[in-house]
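Dear support,

Our group has been running a series of protein-ligand predictions, and this particular one with flavin-adenine dinucleotide is the one our PI (initials K.S.) wants archived with full inputs and outputs. We had some confusion internally about which version of the output was final, so please treat the block below as the authoritative record. The input we submitted was:
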Amino acid sequence: MKVIEYLEKATETLISFEIIPPMRGRSAQEVYTILDQLIEFEPPFIDVTSHAADAYYVEQKDGSFKRYIKRKRPGTLGLCAGIKYRYKIEAVPHLLCRGFTREETEDMLIELNYLGIENLLAVRGDDPNYQKAINPDRSKNNYAIDLVRQVADMNRGRFQDDILDSAQTDFCIGVGGYPEKHEESPNLEADIRHLKEKIDAGAHYAVTQMFFDNQYFFDFEKKCRDAGITVPIIPGLKLLTKPYQMKSLPSNFHVNIPDTLVAAMTAADSETEAQQIGVEYLKKQAGELINAGVSCLHFYVMNDVHLVKEVVRSLK
Ligand code: FAD
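Confirmed final output from the archive:
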């Protein structure tokens, strides 16, 4: 079933999760161990992130540096098949522009279609250190809207090459949104204009970047509605568990963390105390969003699954 159908039919706030594939060479069992713990919440869908190749510079014995290319976290497709057929839950693979050609994306979409995976989230990705050389007969998507258009084209039976007897796909497309604006955008209004373009190009719903002050979400949602965006906007939520995240998350994701939360987290005497501060904060944040009537809460799950469970249990 499609994510948009779940959202439209929901009579109470749905709970969904997002997981990250294990590092290259590690086992899918790591993810299954996490999923085994999340199914009690009956998530209608689970997202699996995607990762482009990256370059690493490793110092050699003679003091020089050698460049290595590594795709740290492959496995999105395989894990999505596992989610769909092992757990009977809809899987939402993330598809990226950066690091993938349109031809590779088309092949991925065909694989997803064969597997009966009907949902995907189309995001641009960030500039990896490693820029893959693109052969002259290959093309690429520059912005998420280009990727949305590619999927929407396939939903109309239009592929990269003219194919006489091509069959249409029928993907439900999600895209990213940024309550505190995307880091490259000059202002929130311009960013929302680009979000609207993605919706107009065929996206069915949006999921937001993490945020820690609900007011950002409420203001963003209102501005989106004022701009003519009518599709569901799902808030993305992240549990804070460590004091160092007070610096790393604003720097990596360009989001603000309220002063009171920063003060409490940095004053925590132990790891357990910091975790409990994060848990209590997220319970309150999620509860307020439910009271505001959001159709779904989307939790970014890392290794802190037992703590995320504590939060979600309190909401049920
Ligand atoms: P876009 O919508 O392409 O926007 C990027 C920037 O360009 C914005 O500033 C926008 O305003 C601007 N813009 C858009 N269109 C145009 C245009 N036509 N002309 C000029 N400017 C334009 N990253 C991963 O690597 N893997 C993942 O699995 C992943 N999952 C994510 C899930 C969610 C819910 C979100 C919110 C983000 C995710 N990301 C992921 C991160 C994402 O790839 C980055 O934030 C990326 O920098 C932007 O992606 P986007 O799809 O929002 O880009």
